[in-house]
Amino acid sequence: MDLAYTPEEEEFRARLREWLAKALPTLPPKPSPDDWPGRRAYDLGWQRRLYDAGYADVHWDASPTVRLIFLEETEKAGAPYVGAGFVGLLHAGPTIAAEGTAEQRARWLPPILRGEEVWCQGFSEPDAGSDLAALRTRARRDGDDYVVSGSKIWTSHAEVADWCELLVRTDPQAPKHRGISWLAMPMGAPGITVRPLRTLAGSAEFAEVFLDEVRVPVANRVGDENDGWRVTMVTLSFERGTAFVGEVVACRRVLRELAGEARKNGRWDDPVLRRRLGRLNAEFRALWRLTQWNVSEAERTGGVPGVGGSVFKLRYSHARQELYGAAADVLGPQSLDLDQPWVLDRLSSLSYTIAAGTSQIQRNIVAERILGLPKGR
Amino acid sequence: MRFQLTEDQRALRDGVRELLARRFGREVLRAAVDEPGRLDRALWRELGVAGFFALRLPEARGGVGLGLPEAVLAFEEAGRTLLPGPLVATHLAAGEVSGAATGEAVVADVGACGLVEWLTEADVVRGDAAGAVPLRSVDPLTPLHRVPVARGVDPVAVLLTAAEQLGSATRACELAVQHARAREQFGQPIGGFQAVKHLCADMLVRTETARAAVYAAAVTADAADIDTARLLADEAAVRGARDCLQVHGGMGFTWEFEVHLHLKRAWVRTHRAGDATESEESLAAELLAQPI
Ligand SMILES: Cc1cc2nc3c(=O)[nH]c(=O)nc-3n(C[C@H](O)[C@H](O)[C@H](O)COP(=O)(O)OP(=O)(O)OC[C@H]3O[C@@H](n4cnc5c(N)ncnc54)[C@H](O)[C@@H]3O)c2cc1C
Questions:
Q1: pTM
Q2: pLDDT confidence tier of residue B291, bands split at 50, 70 and 90
Q3: Which of A239, A261, A297, A299 is flagged as catalytic?
Q4: What is d(CA B219, CA B225) in angstroms, rounded to the nearest whole number?
Q5: Per the CB < 8 Å rule, is A281 touching B292?
Q6: CB half-sphere exposure, A254, CA atoms < 13 A
Q7: Residue among A152, A162, A218 at smallest CA distance from A186
Q8: Gap between the Cα atoms of A204 and A226, Å rounded
Q9: ipTM over the 0.85 cut-off
Q10: Are B123 and B87 in contact (CB under 8 A)?
Q11: Long-range contacts for B130-137 (Cβ within 8 Å, ≥24 apart)?
């Protein structure tokens, strides 16, 4: 067991730090959270800078440890978050890299890395959320195209996406997990309507997507027809396994800021609050160690992240909600003012135990796939 | 970064596990419960011969010459089997108190909460045990005395105690899962019921988070890492035993079933090296100490 990085890894870290220190001050001002076109341009612009500097493919080609260093350092330096690039960089891209054909990789991967194309994730449907395989959106084969009808919901970034990783039912007769296919759907195709949904934080973070006889070339299918559930598992393991690393670093920074604020406003003198912050410090330190443990494990096995991601996601999503619960206590009545720091974050954090598989579903996964307990019906 | 057990570390852990399975199985554990307050000296010496106490003592001084990570793995196994005795105190005394390294001597420490474990069986007591008053210990396998003057804590004692808690948490999770697979109600294994399944999942999540924290603290020996390990491991052990008890239903509430021993020992360990509030306070202070 050791926590030391190799000289090459340390060199990577040092070079990245130096580059970040030069690159970040030249960033344009951040767009407002509701300005989606502005956010798209900002996030893609940053991705382009990373590409030009040779850091763009770190999510896919680098070793898990180098990826960890990248996420740690960019977060520490306060670099922009992947943002609109999330789905493309962190799960659609890696899925295509792992499961796509040579032509598919050549078509879709470079534009993601260069910050030219944004992806969204069309998995959930109004009647199929936790029970994802119950999805009903139909794809009927017509010559070289699939003709797709149905609807998707909670689709993050749908308004500004160029592509959608879309799950469709290609064989309605087959058992529910066997009749699914994974398609790359161009968001500009005729028959697609995007209706933004307002979140409880007041923002338009996700949308409903209606599909009316949308034509998607058969060549856009990743994996075999009706083998989409297997491909989906690859996507989900990326989503749960690697997507939160940088956020632990962010939480540790917030915690220090909270302590500083409590010290300023006098709340620090309350031993109950102080100890709660101390315990949260333990929590996020431990989550960082767990991240390092999982990264080392991935490095050893050399593959797709395993179900260990569910263990992390469960603990992390609750810890992050507690962090903002503590923030509200530090702020006192000011926590009711949307203009105060952390108040919007507190609202957003309510989604962590729901998005990317609810905590209840993660517990089922941990119990059934790690502990071997019987499957529920 | 290779934050995983090495081959040698696996072998060491398996070796300790085998020794304890052979010498301190379920029957021996029950016998020890039936004869409280007595320490098995033959086993103590065997632990000494196996290098349990001299694990971190340099080879030049007759020790095994290994480090904190290896000690943590050995203590985790001790926690898993509920091995009784002042293991941490004797381990810390190796090289300082004669006979401690070899298991010839049993060494007790005055703890930071003013409690002494195994005072009457000890050959040597470190700290001031004058005025010691026996308690009717909640843990049948840990006789306790209260003394007027407490002693400062060695961070290594905190860490090794956390390692024992981790072993106990791991064991509680295993026991719960075994039972949840085997016991049937309403025509199916109870592990198929989500209420039970989710208790088990939470036990694993707490244990694995604690494991990462304890192992990391063993690697860095950093004060804040050790406080972290302690808080997470205490939580995993105490709540793990509680949940394990719940999963076992009425059987969990019996003297026969070993979960109460895990719970009671976990409680004792939470007071061995100072209280959790001290760790919380240091970790709170650490938030202000470092720049954002
Ligand atoms: C901010 C945000 C962004 C999202 N972005 C996307 C996206 O980009 N693309 C996308 O496809 N989806 C996205 N989602 C959808 C998300 O994956 C689903 O909301 C989630 O999987 C839950 O499904 P549901 O909303 O249908 O809830 P339901 O499945 O209806 O669940 C409701 C409640 O029932 C519980 N429940 C359901 N089944 C079980 C069970 N078997 N055992 C125990 N409890 C159960 C759940 O835990 C939950 O508490 C997003 C969600 C949020 C909140």
A1: 0.95
A2: low
A3: A239
A4: 9
A5: no
A6: 24
A7: A162
A8: 33
A9: yes
A10: no
A11: B137/B268
